[in-house]
Amino acid sequence: MVRNAAQKKKVTLSLNWVILEEMKDLIQKQGELSQNRFVEEAIQEYIKKLRREILRREFAEASRDPLFLGDIEQVERDFGRADTEASGLIK
User: Fold this and answer.
1) What is the dihedral of CA 19, 25, 27, 31, to 10 degrees?
2) Predicted pLDDT of residue 91
3) If the chain, 91 residues long, is cut into consecutive pieces of 10 residues, what is the mean pLDDT of each piece?
4) Type and span of the H or E element at 57
5) Alpha-carbon gap, residue 21 to 3, rounded angstroms
């Protein structure tokens, strides 16, 4: 099921009270930020961080995979001439 990005779903969370108080303090100092927005943006940033970490691990694994490395070498051979010609057009 595809959800509209603007659709919201109410959830209940338990947070460490120290973190919650720090969040409330920061929100109050910021002025225009709501708790909902704060939590949503924090979760979005954490998701980005985790996805980058997963991608980094996948690249590290691929860099040790002989089949993947062989494919890269083949692509470099196949497109080497085209790359050389294209780089001559870039000024």
Assistant:
1) 180
2) 61
3) 75 95 95 92 97 96 93 87 73 61
4) helix 35-62
5) 32
Q: Rounded to whole angstroms, how far apart are CA atoms 84 and 22?
A: 55
Which pLDDT score is estimated for 2? 57
Q: How far apart are CA 85 and CA 83, in angstroms?
A: 5
Type of residue found at 78? D
What does the alpha-carbon distance between residue 35 and residue 31 come to, in Å, rounded to a whole number?
11
At a CB cut-off of 8 Å and minimum separation 6, what does 56 contact? none
- HSE (side-chain half, CA atoms, 13 Å) at 90: 6
Whether residue 4 contacts residue 11, with contact meaning beta carbons closer than 8 Å, is answered with no
